[in-house]
Amino acid sequence: MDRLLVLVRHGQSEWNLKNLFTGWKDPGLTELGIEEARTAGRRLKEMGLQFDVAYTSDLSRAQRTCKLILDEIAQPQLPTIADQALNERDYGDLAGLNKDDARARWGEDQVHLWRRSYDVQPPGGESLKDTVARVLPYYIREILPRVMRGERVLVAAHGNSLRALVMVLDGLTPKTIPSLELATGIPLVYRLNPDTTVADKKVLEG
């Protein structure tokens, strides 16, 4: 039994390029982001991977990334489930602000705390801890059972919603998770043991 789970952060978005806090705002992919998504699909194709189901968020940058990947692996009609539970962390009042402007307004230390701490919320938004509390129950209820039945599952989502899953899969802690960065468009290929722990992990870079 394969028990395959592949996580992919969406390709570069227009607001990634502009260095803006994005959160639940819904900018599209840049040309680079489109190519990153296609490259992710080609890397999965080179491994000979096919999927039984895909999951994505309610946001278009993740949905388009998912579609581009599925086109590359010749599975454009794959059943795909979009759910708000997999949305990016909500940055609240910071959404749409330039990160450098935010540092000028609130100071380097405060913005770093909002971005990289585990449990400090930005004004009107979610901490990473809040994001974990949203993503993890959905994973346990909806995604993990399918993986454990031997289905091959693709999840195309966001930096912080996927960090929540990687935290659990890789056994990271509230102290170690803040330093984890997930690159856009780089597939993380997990195979799980019968007890849901990780048997094998591959990062499909360059």
From TrEMBL:
It catalyses: (2R)-2-phosphoglycerate = (2R)-3-phosphoglycerate. Homodimer. Keywords: Gluconeogenesis, Glycolysis, Isomerase. Pathway: Carbohydrate degradation; glycolysis; pyruvate from D-glyceraldehyde 3-phosphate: step 3/5. The active site is at H10 (tele-phosphohistidine intermediate), E88 (proton donor/acceptor). Catalyzes the interconversion of 2-phosphoglycerate and 3-phosphoglycerate. GO terms for biological process: gluconeogenesis; glycolytic process. InterPro entries: His_Pase_superF_clade-1, His_PPase_superfam, PG/BPGM_mutase_AS, Phosphogly_mut1. Pfam families: His_Phos_1. It comes from Microvirga subterranea. The keyword Isomerase applies. Belongs to the phosphoglycerate mutase family. BPG-dependent PGAM subfamily. GO terms for molecular function: phosphoglycerate mutase activity. The gene is gpmA. The record marks H158 as: Transition state stabilizer. Its EC number is 5.4.2.11. Substrate binds at residues 9-16, 22-23, 61, 88-91, 99, 115-116, 159-160. PANTHER family: PHOSPHOGLYCERATE MUTASE (PTHR11931). PROSITE patterns: PG_MUTASE. SMART domains: PGAM (SM00855). The keyword Repeat does not apply. It comes from the Bacteria. This is 2,3-bisphosphoglycerate-dependent phosphoglycerate mutase.
